[in-house]
Amino acid sequence: MALLLAENLSKKFDRLTVLNEINLQIGEGDVLGVIGPNGAGKTTLINVLTGVIPVDKGRVLFRKIDITNMKAFERFRLGIGRTFQDVRPFLSLSVKENVAVAAKMRGADPSAVSETLQFFALEKLADTKLSECNLFIRKKVELAKAIVGKTYLVFLDEPFAGLAEQEIYELIDIIKNLNKNGLTFVVVEHVVTALVKLAKKILVVHLGAKLAEGSPSEIVSNQDVLKVYLGEQIEFAGS
Predict the structure, then answer these.
(1) Is-contact 184 1, C-beta < 8 A?
(2) CB within 8 Å of 128: residues ≥ 6 apart
(3) pLDDT at 62 (0 to 100)
(4) Model's pTM, two decimal places?
(5) Is 54 left (phi over 0), alpha (psi -120 to 50) or beta?
(6) What pLDDT, on the 0 to 100 scale, is given for residue 229?
(7) In Å, how far are 22, 56, 107, 132 from 13, measured between CA atoms?
């Protein structure tokens, strides 16, 4: 069953078309990877789907509810979470307080905070201010904020950027475990070698339009994809 359905999404900034008639269906339990060259429209796609910016044309259905004109906080309360390329924790607050703020915004039971901290192995850092935490911990906290409470769908924008290899693999394991527990993910990422280990399907965006969509093995052998997007890196990821 389609968890999220997007039809004919289009977005312009001044005269520049950033999204051009994109259709997308995300099923329950999917892990959809999104790749494409810089400027392809990947982050704009996430921003439109999560309500950060309005769409010019098209509609978005989430769990059969039309959310096209809903604000980001309304979509968050419905169970759509996200993280950003630039990590955005409340640096003056503790790890626990960060997650608690998100839980309150979603209307989650207070017990969800401690359960989420436990899942992410953040209990020992609960009272530590985010300003004292490294990038990996901050990214874990941001993901914890995105999923605390009743969540169905999470968008991750370059979650592996800036992380060491071991940290990437640890974050992949966390996402896989969340997926096994029922969460659906859309992951925009430039670290293709990591993405193919995680994604069940991959969408390739080019010049604001859908270039290809399929399994990781199909995408790494797609000649159109290899022509426009980091052919050598994708071949290496699929080897």
Answers:
(1) no
(2) 94, 95
(3) 98
(4) 0.92
(5) beta
(6) 62
(7) 16, 10, 34, 38
CA neighbor of 2 nearest in space, from 153, 137, 156: 153
Backbone angles phi, psi at 171, to 5 degrees: -70, -35
Buried b (16+ CB within 10 A) or exposed e, 122-149: beebbeebbeebeebbbbbbbbbbbbbb
Report the SS3 class of residue 128: coil
Angle at CA of residue 174, ends 179 and 106, nearest 5°:
70
Residues forming a β-bridge with 52 = none
Q: How would you label 37-64 residue by residue, b for 16+ Cβ within 10 Å and e otherwise?
A: eeebbbbbbbbbbbbbeebeebebbbbe
Q: Quote the CA–CA distance of 199 and 187 in Å, as a whole number.
A: 8
Contact indicator for 146, 81 with CB cutoff of 8 Å: yes
DSSP type of residue 208: T
Residues 52-87 pLDDT 10s: 999 999 999 999 999 999 999 999 999 999 999 888
Kindly report, residue by residue over 180-231, the tens digit of the pLDDT: 999 999 999 888 888 888 999 999 998 889 999 999 889 888 888 888 765 4
> How many whole angstroms separate alpha carbon 46 and alpha carbon 41?
9
- The closest alpha carbon to 156, from 137, 182, 184, 129, belongs to 184
